[in-house]
Every structure is written in C-alpha cells, then in structure tokens.
Amino acid sequence: MTNHEVLPLLGQVADSVSQAIAHARPELAGADPLVRRSEHADFQSNAALALAKRARTRPTELADALIAAVAGDRGPITRVDMSGPGFLNITVPDQLIWNQLAARLASLRLGVGTPNEGQRTVIDYSAPNIAKEMHVGHLRTTIIGDSLARVLGFLGAEVIRQNHLGDWGTQFGMLIQYLDEHPEATWHHDELEPGTSAASALDDLYRTARALFDADPEFADRSRRRVVALQSGDHDTVTRWREIVAESERAFRDIYDRLGVLLTPDDSVGESFYNHLLADVVTELTEAGIAVGSEGALVIFSEEVTGPDGNPIPLMVRKRDGGYGYDTTDLATIRYRIHDLKSNRLLYVTDSRQALHFQLIFEAARRAGWLTDNVEAAHVPYGTVLGPDGRPFKTRAGGTVRLMDLLDDSVARARAVVHEKDPDLPAEELDQIAEQAGIGAVKYADLSNSRIKDYTFDVDRMVSFNGNTGVYLQYAHTRIRSILRKAGDPHVVIDPTIELQPAERALALQLDAYDTALTEVGETLEPHKLCGYLYDLARAFTSFYEACHVLNAEEPVRGNRLALCQLTARTLRHGLNLLGISAPDRM
Ligand code: ARG
C-alpha cells in the first residue's frame, strides 16, 4: 500500500480478507473483499454472500472457508464469526487499535496519506460576473470549490484555482456608454455610502442602461459602437472597462475576505483572458471539421445529445454577427488548462443547470483531441438554494439577496445564541466568536447538504447548537479543548496494553477512519461526506465522555483517554479547516 502514512484498520482488514479469499478460492483472487465498519463487530465483510455464486457454493460454506483461511494468517484480525446468511463479523485486537491512534497522534498529518499526488488539478470556482451582484448561487460555488481545493491539496494534488470571472461581453458596451453620458452616476467605492458595494451600484446602473438601450435606438447604436471600441482596444474604453472590473473585484474581495476563502487576485483569470485565444481555437475546430457552418453561424453539433426535436444539440462557436460567447470561451478554457497549465484533472464547480453546457464542451474537447484518457474533466454541479417558501432564495421583493446582508444576519444570530449560552463572555471575544460561528454556520449548512440537491436556507437552524451544524461541531471542539486545558495540555503516551471500553473502541475506530472519509471526498467531490464524518465523530466523543471518566480516571487509563481527547480535538479542528471553517478554542 502506497501513499498511506498510517494505513487505516479498514484497509488492513480488507487486505487480510483479500488474502483469505485468494487462499481459500484461488479463482476468486482479486475480488472486492467488501469490508466496512459494522455495528455488530469492528468490521463486517459481505464477500461470502457476494462471491458464493461465482465460487459455485453456498454463502455459508464460503464464509467457513474464509474463516479458516483468516485463522491461518497472522494478520490484523483477532476473531471472525459468521452471522446471518454468511456475513463475516470481524474484530481487531485492542493493542492494534491503540497503536493506530498513537501513530496518528505522532503525525502532523494525522496519518493521512497523499493519494492524489501527481494530479495537477484545476478547480474553476466562484466566477461571479463583473458589474453584477454576487448571488446565492455564487456563494455555493465559492464555498464548495474552496473546500475541494483544500481537501484535494491536502491529499497531495497540485491545485490550481481559477476564478473565471464574467468580465467580457457586449453588455459592457452599454454600461460604458451610459457611464460616459452620465458623469453624475456614482459607482466608484470612493463615492458610495458605506455598506453599498460597487458591484451593486453597477448592477443598478446596468439595469438603467439596459432600459435606455431598449427605449432609445440612438443610444443603442452608440452602445454597439462602444462594443466595437472595446473589442478593438480603444484606449479610453478599455480604461473605463478596467476600472469597472477593478471596482467589482474589490467588492467580491470583501466577500471573499469575510468568508476566508483561498482565492487571491492571482486566481482571477476571467473570460477576457481567453479573448486572444478564441480565433485560434475556432480555426483549429473548423480545420478539424468539428465546427461547421449553420445559418451563418459556426456550431459544433453533438454526436451524443439530441434535443426534444430529435436533432443534435449545437454548441455555439461563432455567432452570426461574428461574436464569440460563453461556449467559445469554455472551449478555450479547456484547451488552455490542458495544454498550457498541463493539468490532468479539470473541475468546473457550477450550478447543475449548466450540466449540458459542460457535457457538450467535454465532448467537443474529446473530439478535438485535447481531452484524452489521461485527463479527467468533470462538471461538479450543485443544487439551488431555496428560501423558506421552497422557491429559489430571493428577497421579499423578489430581488437578489445581498451576500453581505446574509452573512451579517447569520453572525448576528450566532452572536445571540453564543451569548445566551455564555453570558459572561467579554464583548470583544463574543464578537470574534460570533463572526467565526456565523460564517462557519453558513458554510457548514452549504457543505453538509448533499451537493447536488437543493437546500433550504434557514438561518435559525444553521446557528443552532444542536444537530448537524457547524456551531455544534465548533462547540464540541471547544469542550474537548477545555478538558485538555484542565489536564494541563499534557504530552500523552499511550499504553497499548489497556483493554478498550466499548465507547472508547467506537471513538477510536471512528478516529482511525478519517483517512478513509477524506479519500472518499477526494473521489466523489462531495464535501458533505466529510461533514457527516465529523458529525459522527463528535457524537462518538459525546458517548465516550458520558460513559468514561477522563480527568479523574487512574493512570494509565487516564493518559489513554486524554490521548483520545487530543486526537478527537485535532481531527475535528483539521476537518473543519478543510471545510474552510475555523475552530475556536472557546465558545
Ligand atoms: N460566470 C458564470 C456564472 O455566473 C460561471 C462561470 C463558470 N466557469 C466556467 N468556466 N464556465 O454562471
């Protein structure tokens, strides 16, 4: 086994059952040992049930053969029993469990390996649109993408973050023209009232400009000429466009700072960046016969997807007016990321409604020979954020929810629940904790819901100390930190000869499974699996703490229990950090 600092017990047991399978029935060698955690024993294997048919025998008979083979091996298994129709219930020795914990405690990485080493992974996330407000959907991509960047990076991948800002398009002609004709319009952060962002001021101005464009044909003409001026690099127009981009980015940065995401200005590689590459991309696709003319436009007809009318769905490569759009730019992103960034894993974190777009882009890239079998390209879709009425989350007036307001609201409610729990907290500390809890609550609510599903934004539930919430996990961490502080934060040495109590055992096995949980997130790209793991860990700790004395236990039991506390606190903190959530020491 490579890339494991400390091989999880689950993996050790699986290896052992694999060997038993190969030994008992050589014709089944290599079959999945189907080992998982179990409530009836430490682990359970369903291999006998799954493989009996192939072995032309009954499950119970195969199970007996496997039990005999395991017994002949000095592997990590102390006891195997058959249960039900042929399940194998597997128990591992206490000493081995303690040794696993000691090895994890001794490791800065908690014993977690780097299975994603050698993967150069581009993660395209956040990508709000310039001169528009960031909306709740951008909050999801930002939070999910950031957590994936952290997890994959920790697992050894070389992560390249790409913030594909919507900073190009004909709408800028209209906006720039309007601003020129209305010098009194305010949108620069120097002129705005505190609390208003340039992005929202520009969003308003854009709507006004749009209305004028529709009502006044002469303004519309002047706007179209502005688009041409922008595209041909006219100095004043480009300068104005740059100012708009900078002001919007400034407003986005306020949100990023508040959320504590990894994105930096260097990660901003917006649509405009690809502008100089588009003509070449189009030529390549045309010469290869992949892009073809259709009613004056240039399109790529899918060979895989047809529309409701039975005709192949087209990807728009060049519009009739000669312009390029979102599709063309994404053809350029994929070519650039594979050929220039030399990436072998490409992830696009966007709304699930863009699934077809990416399916078509990936198909075209495969046909063009850019996307080969050595490269994985995946759309990482997510569901819609719903309001209390079960419809897409909007303000009462039906507008976009301002993200800053939403974060302020969550922090204010977190402040109230934290204050209620501990009224003696000094104001300054309360403010700091409220900020960590409130932001953590929003992030955790987003991450803990299955990525692909819609979820309902419910602030009161998010900041609750009960249930699967960020606040609950942060609080669980502070409770353990407080136990450790009372014990004087000792350097603990585990005595592996001590017999494990059932609650200690359940906690220990959960701690050992951190590795497995992270690897699964790395493969499925579903952060809610890490949330679920951490929640189960916090609950296993609670059961342990209810069943076992820690501070007033006798040595060496006390030392071992403090070790369990330490490893739990570190694992919780580490896991929260991979979700982008801070773990305060007190709450
Ligand atoms: N700006 C787009 C939006 O707001 C998202 C861009 C996602 N990335 C991409 N390469 N298409 O929906």
From TrEMBL:
Residues 11-92 form the Arginyl tRNA synthetase N-terminal domain. It catalyses: tRNA(Arg) + L-arginine + ATP = L-arginyl-tRNA(Arg) + AMP + diphosphate. It is an enzyme of class 6 (ligase). It is found in: Cytoplasm. Coiled coil: none annotated. Its EC number is 6.1.1.19. Residues 473-587 form the DALR anticodon binding domain. It comes from the Bacteria. A motif ('HIGH' region) lies at residues 128-138. It holds the Pfam family DALR_1. CDD domains: Anticodon_Ia_Arg, ArgRS_core. Keywords: Aminoacyl-tRNA synthetase, ATP-binding, Cytoplasm, Ligase, Nucleotide-binding, Protein biosynthesis. Monomer. Belongs to the class-I aminoacyl-tRNA synthetase family. HAMAP family: Arg_tRNA_synth. This is Arginine--tRNA ligase. It comes from Actinoalloteichus caeruleus DSM 43889. The lineage of its organism: Bacteria, Bacillati, Actinomycetota, Actinomycetes, Pseudonocardiales.
